[in-house]
Specification:
This protein is mainly β. The protein is about 10% helix and about 35% strand. The chain has three domains: about 140 residues; about 100 residues, Nucleic acid-binding proteins (OB fold (Dihydrolipoamide Acetyltransferase, E2P), Beta Barrel), CATH 2.40.50; about 160 residues, Jelly Rolls (Sandwich), CATH 2.60.120.
Length: about 475
């Protein structure tokens, strides 16, 4: 018993001595977090990186360019980090822009490392040595061209085969040099209509936006059909344009429900995986400040929910018997200054109207297809139905309206949006079948009524093909 007591006392003494020694060695002092400033004078910039690839394309038709290694005089550019992987919404990549405010260029830097935010936090000034790195470009067009007017995405990294991959872990410190400067990034306030290639890979802000009405109740990226990313429609109040919010299914907030209000959103502007259309990517849900309860939803036709529809066909627009729109009384017009309008198409013996901005060279492209006058004075319980189908869907470009004062100019008429089901098919190929609109109650309208199908997209942006068929109004 005595021996055991002696051993116990000795053990306690050793523990106390050890703890005391740790404390005396400064265990409670703050770790050294100072950054040794690199002795670097930048001799290039992000714009020059882009220009090098453009020159390579013009000279050799190549869409990748590897910068030469010059041991005696390496090339550096400086920039500021605007992305954070703290919530898992960015993965093994840094988005860097060339200024803290009013940037002129941004680039995506691929890095084979996670938890990048611990070293490269938002606002951190970096130097990047581009010797031996490769820059690539993609604008999503069938004929990719870094010198055209389509906004594309530039990516910088390590060349493996013919693809640009992440800089290996062992080479990160050879190419990325952290400074002790951390600035507050001022996002560029810009409208969806005004996006250019210079805004890609920079921090932007929409000052008046909300999630589209069709998105309410959904999560950021937790729906059953969200495979890699969730894409949700942001509606800009002033322009009524749609911008996709892209959220990774690995983001910590993927199961959060989308906010229902209106306000501002700050995000990195990028392009989707295929670089076909613009997307916004947030660092954290707190970047969405939808604090205004009153939304900016466009006026919607409201005739009540009473059961309508009759046996009399007041208008039948199935396109089967017409050779052109104008001879059948339809108005088919482009109001964005271009020439592209709806066309009549046929597939497997079925005729329909079709519109797409793909490869039109127009951005924006706003085209309207309006029915002839449909008189409702001598009928009751009127109902509108129609069918739609999408092809290569990269955004909702179609909206349907009705008017009672249209006189030939779609820009001066009063239009009420129709709350109907519109096709939302796959991103590749076409839907197998048309989607029914469901019943739209027109019974509160009288006189001449016009139904309009507005396509609002743009080449290099939303180019979804929409097909319209079986436009019908019935009543008693």
């Amino acid at each position: 018993m005595k021996t055991n007591k002696i051993y116990s006392i000795l053990s306690i003494f050793i523990i106390v001595f050890t703890l005391n020694s740790c404390i005396q060695d400064g265990d409670f002092t703050l770790p050294n977090i100072t950054v040794e400033e690199p002795n670097i004078i930048p001799n290039s910039n992000i714009t020059a990186v882009k220009s090098a690839l453009q020159q390579e394309f013009n000279s050799n038709n190549n869409l990748i360019y590897t910068f030469p290694v010059n041991e005696g005089s390496p090339t550096y550019f400086e920039g500021y980090v605007v992305s954070s992987d703290a919530t898992g919404n960015f993965y093994k990549r840094l988005i860097i822009q060339d200024a803290i405010e009013n940037p002129t260029a941004g680039i995506e830097l691929l890095v084979n490392k996670t938890s990048l935010n611990e070293m490269y936090d938002v606002g951190r000034k970096l130097y990047v040595k581009i010797d031996g790195l490769t820059v690539s470009y993609d604008d999503g067009d069938r004929n990719i061209d870094p010198t055209n007017n389509i906004a594309g995405k530039y990516v910088l990294g390590n060349l493996e085969g013919d693809r640009v991959r992440a800089i290996p872990t062992t080479s990160i410190d050879d190419h990325i040099f952290r400074t002790g400067t951390v600035e507050e990034i001022v996002p560029t306030i810009v409208s969806v209509n005004d996006f250019t290639g210079a805004h890609v890979n920079t921090l932007i802000k929409l000052s008046s936006a909300q999630f589209d009405k069709s998105q309410l109740g959904k999560t950021f990226a937790g729906e059953p059909n969200d495979e890699f990313d969730g894409l949700r429609d942001l509606f800009e109040c002033d322009t009524e344009k749609i911008l996709k919010l892209q959220t990774s299914t690995f983001a910590s907030f993927k199961s959060n429900v989308l906010p229902e209000g209106k306000g501002s959103i700050t995000a990195v502007l990028s392009k989707d995986f295929r670089s076909e259309f613009f997307v916004a990517i947030i660092n954290t849900p707190s970047d969405i400040m939808f604090t205004e309860v009153e939304r900016c939803d466009p006026p919607v036709l409201e005739c009540g929910n009473a059961s309508v529809g009759g046996s009399n066909i007041l208008f039948n627009g199935d396109f089967e018997t017409i050779s052109n729109f104008s001879s059948a009384g339809w108005t088919n017009v482009n109001v964005s200054g271009g020439t592209n309008v709806y066309s009549l198409r046929s597939f497997s013996g079925n005729k329909y109207a079709q519109m797409s901005a793909f490869r039109t060279g127009e951005n924006p492209l706003e085209a309207w297809l309006v029915t002839p006058a449909i008189n409702l004075d001598n009928s009751t319980d009127e109902e509108l139905t129609f069918d739609t189908k999408t092809g290569f869907n990269n955004g909702r470009a179609l909206a349907v309206f009705v008017s009672t004062d249209f006189s030939g100019d779609v820009t001066t008429a009063t239009w009420l949006r129709v709350d109907a089901t519109i096709a939302d098919g796959p991103s590749s190929g076409y839907q197998s079948n048309f989607t029914s609109s469901g019943s739209v109650n027109l019974s509160c309208l009288s006189g001449n009524v016009y139904v309009a199908f507005r396509y609002l997209g743009g080449d290099g942006d939303i180019t979804t093909t929409f097909q319209i068929d079986n436009v019908k109004v019935t009543g008693n």
